[in-house]
Amino acid sequence: MEHPVPEGEITDYPVTIEAAEIDVILKTLPHRFPFLLIDRVIDIRGDYAGIGVKNVTVNEPQFQGHFPNRPIFPGVLMIEGMAQTAGIIGMLSATETQRPTAVYFVTIDKCKFRTPALPGDTIFYHMRRINRKRAIWWFHGQAKVNGKVVAEAEIGAMLAD
After folding, report:
1. Partners of 45 in beta bridges
2. Looking at the domain assignment, is residue 84 inside a domain?
3. In a domain, 47, yes or no
4. pTM of the predicted model over 0.85
5. What is the count of structural domains for the chain?
6. Separation between Cα atoms, residue 83 and residue 56, nearest integer Å
7. Which residues make Cβ contacts (< 8 Å) with residue 45, sequence separation at least 6?
């Protein structure tokens, strides 16, 4: 699996051994089916980086209309998956007593869609924090399928109570 930290970059952010599995995600994010768009988050490095995982299946409701004869995972849902991954990274990095109760999507910049993701694909949302000011966090994200970038964006999120 490709590492989210750029090659040659030295950080003090250790990899956690455990991943944020679906039970942790459900306790942390308010999203539910059909709008919960990550299945787990792995390789979490403090508040700096992590990788969200989405297994795309043909029985998801968006494929009824996008598109009936050629199902393609909507790009906007990939961006939301990036935002949910960033939300997990930010919220789990706070201590239990100071953990925010909500995360809000505030910006999308430099968004590009490269290649469609299809049913059967596993999307890896490689997220890396690029800035933080008080409760607003900015992340650079790349959605990858089989190691190939299918979408990328810079997103901002606000953690709140």
Report:
1. 49
2. yes
3. yes
4. yes
5. 1
6. 17
7. 4, 5, 11, 13, 14, 15, 16
Whether 53 maps to a domain, the answer reads: yes
For tokens 């403090």, name the residue: 46
Greatest alpha-carbon span in the chain: 49
Q: Are the beta carbons of 128 and 86 closer than 8 angstroms?
A: no
Mark whether 3 is an active-site residue: no
Report the CATH number at residue 148: 3.10.129.10
Copy the structure tokens of residue 71: 């199902």
Catalytic hit among 3, 66, 126, 140: 66
> Mean pLDDT per 10-residue run, the chain (161 residues)?
46 62 91 94 92 97 92 97 94 72 89 97 97 92 98 93 77
Q: Which domain covers residue 82, as residue numbers? A: 22-160
